[in-house]
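Support case: user asked for a sample of complex input and structure output to validate their parser. Sending the pair below.
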Amino acid sequence: MTHTNNITPAKDKPYWSPYLAGFGLGLILLASHLLLGNGLGASGGFGRIALFTADQVNSDYIDSLDHASKIAHGSRHVLMDNLVFGLLGVAIGGFFAAISAGRVKPFGTVERGPTATKRRRLLLAFVGGLLMGVASRIARGCTSGQALSGGSQLALGSWAFMMAVFAGGFALAYFVRRQWK
Amino acid sequence: MIFPLNVLAEWGFDATLFWSLLIGVGFGFMLERGGFGSSKVLAAIFYGKDWRVLKVMFSAIVTTMLGLYLLIGLGVVQMDAIAFRPTYIYPQAIGGLLLGFGFVMAGYCPGTSVVGVASGRLDAVFVVFGIMFGCLGFENHFARVQEFWNSGSMGVVTLHDWLGVNPGIIVMGVVLMAIGAFSAVGWFERRATGIPFPKAHKMAAGAAVMAGMIVATISFAGPGNARALTTAGDAQSVAVIQPLQLLEWAAAERQDCLCLDLRPEGSLPEMPNALKFTSEELLDLRTRPTFADSRKLIVIDASGSDVARHVAADLRAGGASVAVLAGGAAAWQAQVLDPSVTDALAKAWQLRMQGKSALGEGAAPPPAPKKKKVKRKKRKEGGCS
């Protein structure tokens, strides 16, 4: 494929054609539906790992939460879940893909615009993460579980979610542009 | 070893988890190869600079959708074997908007942030911590948001259910929409770079349209979706059965039909060979029991309302043979049980019922269908996926 991309740094191997990567992603997602009877998900795994960690720190606090304790103290260990193992797999697969293409940065690299400060970028990264954590819980999934999985199932609510994600992203883009400048 | 396998087994490690891990590896690999280990690439879509996100996402959605609906259309995959995402329209719309805000701030979405961490990026690590604190924050305030979280529940409803059309139309529509979007952004890119449209892309687009046409055709006429011709979630098109017809079947003690009574426990009149369900139980694929395929299901509520039709349409979409009792239990009361009816069979039925109640025995309870193992229950509690 001859797709070129001005963002790709010259020293790294170029990314795959987005259509090829998307096709591959689609086959993986289809395999997930056929093997597990379900799509993929990311935020659910995060939620479980967060609950597990909080439970180690203060189990009584988790017990006091009706919804959280059901997940954290269920019949099965909170980490013995498809979503947690899926997330672990994403880390392994992502690392393998990055290292084989020479794209693993020295740890501590902060990707930002040429004049943006590290502090600005890291602050926005954390706050954005916070928002996404809450949002993915409210919506019962994130870009993986709702937009990709639900979208390919043609689920009505997942399409509403997907449109809303793009609407939100485009609406706020102007206000956070300085981290890339 | 840090994580011995026997400890994993003790915690309940099984084959599903292994497959999840493997599929996750593939997912992470493809995300990275698509360029999603970099927040700059991801955020670029919101500034109209690079449309990779759109291209990768929609290529993936189209691929999976074509595969899934091909197999459903061929009858290889049963729709209720797949955990379709239920619709909770308000939380999904508001959650999506908030996630969009977070996405453009963070430069990553939850799944891609993991790839970012795996690519050695510190900003991605901050995103990951943010997400985890965000999830905990939600759990902490769950009691306050619970009502909103459960609002706008519509059950499992797909775009074709919602629009009342055959899935093939939506499948084809999504393929064409994706190619239209790819061509539009491609046109902008070509104008900026002057690089001509690669021939391979044209061929891929042609192949996708062909595949879409095949899947759509199978969706209309294939064995798996022969039912979709009549259903497509269109509640108004479900078959109805008249009380006297049902009476004939009941009198003949046909074992191949089963009444699903949506009315509350203890409602009168009692229906023959009936099991009690709530409409929510039947509309949710996780609580819906598996009915033997050969059985004819008759959905009964108080008056044969739209709720009963909706449940019936949904059961039919799941592959069952379904009818709604016209006029519901009220019509049964009026046409079969009312003392003034003249129909001979109805008279006989009334005598039989009187005889039964005189003997102090109700209608023999029908064999309960096997409740489906609710193995996906956890997900419902888990919230996000």
